Amino acid sequence: MFRNHLRSLSLLSLASVSLFLFPGCGKSRENITVAGSTAFQPFAEKLADQYMSTHPDVSITIQGGGSALGIQSALSGAAQIGMADLVKLPQEASTLKNLIVARDGIAMVVHPNNDIKGLTTDQVRGIFNGTIKNWKEVGGNDHAIAVISREAGSGTRSSFEKIIGKLSLTPDALIQDSNGTIRETVANDAFAIGYLSHGLVNEKIKAVPVDGAGCTEKDIAEGRYPLVRPVFLVYNPTVSPACQAFLDYLLSEEAQTLIHKNGLIRAK
To answer: Alpha-carbon Rg of the chain, whole angstroms?
Structure first.
């Protein structure tokens, strides 16, 4: 019994030393969940990692699922912050506060071997409606067009359809559930066309000019490129101080520089 008592005292002493040497180890961390847009998800992950590196008392979890899910998660409380890359927020988000954290171009992308030089907005609409079915109709090779689109509920799809206008997606379209899978599908099909966040364009695919303007930072910033949407963060007015501090950080010079460095346009 005496030996057990000594052992208990030793464990207590070790715990006391640990708290003395590492005073933060006994504190609970504030958990923040951010959910929604898969287009903004990789950028949010980088921002969260940067923030947590200097705020060890905060744990931030980033989840995808699409803009519709992001708004619903913020409304239900399943997430403190919802991400939505939409031209305009829907009516159901009116009870939430929001901020624009970045702006993003929607790039029309094809395989690098596709020699198409550019498309008009009308041609893009025709391709995704299914009234234009062959690349030769828009100046390309004589081959059927493989249309790749996002799933219903995707903010990228909603923004794309709203900007293009009068769009009823062809039933022949192959549906993908993220910007990443759009990119991989187009990269592996020489006759495919899809759309994704311009910050996610890489050497595997080629962005096509629309209406004579490229999906570039310069053309987006100067208002020439037509397919542009804001990235909203939505949240309840009663978020915790730690959550509000993270939201404030996202508009800081450090965060906006990180957003810009990774391919998106600053919020302002």
So the answer is: 23
> Residue 122 corresponds to which tokens in the numbers above?
């009308």
Same domain for 119 and 211, yes or no, is yes
The Cα–Cα gap between 259 and 103 comes to: 10
Tokens of 162: 């709203």
- Do 117 and 63 belong together in one domain? no
Q: Assess contact for 159 and 201: CB atoms under 8 A.
A: no
Question: Residue 222: what pLDDT?
Answer: 86
The C-alpha atoms of residue 151 and residue 137 are separated, in whole angstroms, by 26
Backbone angles phi, psi at 245, to 5 degrees: -65, -40
- Provide the token pair at 208: 């096509």
pTM summary value: 0.76
CATH of the domain at 169: 3.40.190.10
d(CA 71, CA 54): 28
Q: Which amino acid is at 129?
A: N
Instruction: Return the structure tokens found at 234.
Output: 């939505």
Angle, helices 67-76/155-164, rounded to nearest 10 degrees: 120
Residues 6+ apart with CB under 8 A from 256: 102, 266, 267
**What is the tens place of the pLDDT at every residue in 172-206?**
999 999 989 999 999 999 999 999 988 889 999 99
**3-state SS track over 82-135:** EEECCCCCCHHHHHCEEEEEEEEEEEEEECCCCCCCCECHHHHHHHHHCCCCEH
